[in-house]
User: Fold these one by one.
Assistant:
Number 1:
Amino acid sequence: MHSYQFHIGDYKSHTHHLTIIEDIAYRRLLDHYYLHEQPIRQHDIARQIGMREHEQEVLSVLEEFFQSTPEGYVHSRADQEIAKFKEFAAAGKRGAAKRWSEHSPPNSPPIAPPLPPHWGNDGPPNATPIATNNHKPITNNHIKGAEAPVSVDKSVWEDFMKIRKAKRAPMTATALEAIKREAGKAGWSLNDAIKECVTRGWQGFKADWVEKRTEAGPDPTLAKLKEDEKLARPMPASVRQALHGSLKRIV
């Protein structure tokens, strides 16, 4: 496809948390996907879209917004648009063929209807069938039964799975490892990171999106006071009496 519909409202609601670099990476990945009409291979994709200096951001966006399959990363919304385009083109060819057959002279040799301007004589570009949202779910990389990790509350995990399902982002071992890695960078536990995702409606987690947590040690002033308190001794009676006498004379 050389053009596609762009829904600004939908895009903004799903990408408001991205940095400028991540936003550019997502737009270029979408353009690449629509243009080639086939799954994206992770290898060398940053170079192919002209962002080799920002490979980490490109891979992060790829993991968040695309689904991993054995053929590569696919995008369910884009697959729907590509399927509609192909059906529209096929319907146009059938209509043109029908009109020609109705108006052509008897016994005239059949003439193929004209192809869309961006198609070659061999058919549409990248004519190899691609995976769509109708393909069978990939299970070899999925977490069996989407069970909650031991360190994550079951209720938190179930809520997180609902968000992933609504966004058509199956939970895979790769996705979970990415969340664990980013949670570690932020100093968060996996449970807290996933709970934050549920609260904010995120399907993934990045350390850059939250403040880093550090374990604060004891306040040094308070610690000094406690140590001095341990060393304190009661005032001797003779000193207390002498001090009391001095105060009386002053008064």
Number 2:
Amino acid sequence: MESVSCNLCRRDDVLFLAEQQGFRIVRCRGCGLVYVNPRPVGARLAALYADYHSRDGGDEASWDRLMGQVFGESADLLSAMRHESGGSRLLDVGCGFGGFVALMRERGWDAVGVDPSPAVVEAATRRGRPVQQGTLEDLGANRGAYDAVTMFYVLEHLADPMRALRTAWDLLAPGGTVLVRVPNTTPIVRVLAPFGLGGTLYDPPYHLYDFSPAVLRDMLGRAGFIDVRTFPGKPTVPSRPAARLTAAFFGAIARGVHAMTARSVLLPGVSKTTIARKPLR
């Protein structure tokens, strides 16, 4: 186990929020970033992901179903933006079985993926999807090589999310787009805690961070991105019926509130999609 400072502002002044599955969840008093502290060291974290995609009986079909609506909406958004920029080179970070890579290639993008799990990379490769084993940092030499970088439920898993966002900035061509999908668990935990519920929602140590829209905007800005926009987006589709209904219900409410308030109100606790742009100069 190792103790770490705030990844965003580097302060060590924190407020204890919860303890889940033997891990302490804290919030930085300076910037508001929520994170696990202390946490397993890097080698132990890497070992956790050997069978991550098969948790709770997960397989390629269940992951495609889970992320189908999110992928479709994101593909529509990026394809619309492509008409403005003209670029079609895309990198999906933490691509898993390569579902989003396949979808974007069907839409005419030169899409590739990277994932640290040998098992999912092998499965994706068998299906002819251009996916390589590794991490975002392994691609750091490809400066300016992509017009879009996507990270679906990835940033919360990374030991150094600020470094990841800066690396994504380096990998993007001028005017390129980053698209990030992250959970926002803290508001739900606050509501459920008095009833003795929500004791595993942070999902440590797989999830090391929890991002509010304001904190993620701050992180993207410090990484050099501009034109940051956040919206509720379509929900995931879990396998369990109760979870699926919950996601659909609160997702619909979040999108409705966002629309009725001229896109000014983001319902807390719902996963959100954020896009930002690298400046042209």
Number 3:
Amino acid sequence: MEKRDLINILSKVKNHEMDVDEAVLKFKLEPFSDIDIAKIDHHRGIRNGNCEVIYGEGKSAEDICAILKNMKDHEEKCVLITRLSSDKAEIIKQSYSLNYNELGRIGYVGAVPEPDGNGRVLVLCAGTSDISVCEEAAVTVEVLGNKVERLYDVGVAGLERLLMNLENIMRADIIIAVAGMEGALPTIVNGLVDCPVIAVPTSVGYGVSFEGVSALLTMLNSCSSGMAVQNIDNGFGAAVFASRINHMKGSNK
């Protein structure tokens, strides 16, 4: 159950289309399901606006299918699966109509909702090696009900690529900026715009980049104030944060 379902039930009670006892019954339905392999939180959508997401890494395709079945039985409209390998995706497709993005290692079952966020989320990255994290973020943003645009390979090694897209960047309502190596791109972007910027370091880089730690520290130590920073390779977390901002009342320009 999502927050919009809760609002719909309360509206029906208000308009005398549903009696109070029926509404109470819907609210009292089990808040989670224990299916041995997982305890599935069905009231997460009521609490924070979005249903539970399946983290695919470390789970078998069969376990993911079992969780999917339970969530669909509880009328979850669109279920997101992150860190999903292509071999598991092929197995899941035998039972469900899975929309799978191999680059982002992310998929979903169900219909993507019409965008109801206040503005446009721009996902951009420094280099093509960062695209997998960007795609995880972009697909998540879409599934959570937001308009999304992508702008890839505009890193600081060729700054003219970024500056040629400056008008588009400045029109964004929220920006997710993804970068590996030294991680300088989000700082530059944040110094150019007046919208929230969410920085995501990636594990892309040589030797002393320490699998993304160098980029993470650069972003945490940014001299461009007000920038939010996510964990290494966490495109999903950046997208959820962006969606929450985009669905706040009065958050659009």
Number 4:
Amino acid sequence: MTAEAYKAAGVDIQAADAIKENIGAFAAITHNDNVLKGVGFFSGMYRLRGYKEPVLVSTTDGVGTKLKIAVRLGHYESLGIDLVNLNVNDLVPAGATPLFFLDYISFGKLDAQVVEPLLRGMAWACREIGCALIGGETAQSPGLYTGDDFDLAGTMVGVVEESAMVDTSRIAEGDVLLGLPSSGLHTNGYSLVRKVFGIDANPAVLHRRHDELGHTLGEELLIPHRCYYQSLSPHYSKVKGMAHISGGGLIGNVPRVLPRGLAAAIDTSAWKPKPIFKMIQSQGRISTDEMYQVFNMGIGMVLVSSPQRVSALQKALPEAVVIGHVVKQDGPDRVILRRS
């Protein structure tokens, strides 16, 4: 099959080669001396040095159906930021430092006007945390995706000294739960959001301004997933555990760091979620329990601290608010939601 025949089948090799040159330029601005460069390699290489007993920590995830909102609005930089930040936030609970990131983008039809903003967002986010965008894959898959649809995922690799890993086994009854605010929905619950607001049937709702939000619904839904690495990495040694509140909400994620026999008693009146959460619950007629199972409800990261360290942590992290305590588990529930 000739290149022209392949192009007629939906795959444009020349366009892909041109885009790869731009990808290389974006990636280069994130590289440091640990990134090894060479001609003809089929993988990225990173020199690991300066560690005695390094433990590699890896995460992989995608932005989910938030993609569909970005496609509707033609805005992609924030998705690139989302992809990096949601993955690095999953490294944080181990006490890890991000090393390098790889992306995967697959299109029905390759579009430089989409690829370049995505890569720009990824490069910005990687530079913010000192992480190298070391490689990835941009694939053309005609017939697999329709219209402007595409898929986006990423993998982050970090490292931590084995002796410095966050040890959640030390968590005990009476420890304090501190919450750090989210920037909004982050990257979870968008399938429900699209249904609640009828976005697929009427995309015009994305352009409607809401006074309680201070901007349009579309602008709210594309607020980037907040990154917690910069603020938390200097304080890894001060906490007993950390939970990234992603898919599954507070109910699904806080128990992941708790030893068996312990539960989290959370006072939901300790913080005020952003208005978007109330809008979703009201318009969708969603129960409070389900809201806390689907969405972060305004808390993007939960820290577990001994009572003695709470004051120091709040001084270092002024946004951190006490949202509850670790208690003995009494019954099947590992998260108990209360209002004081």
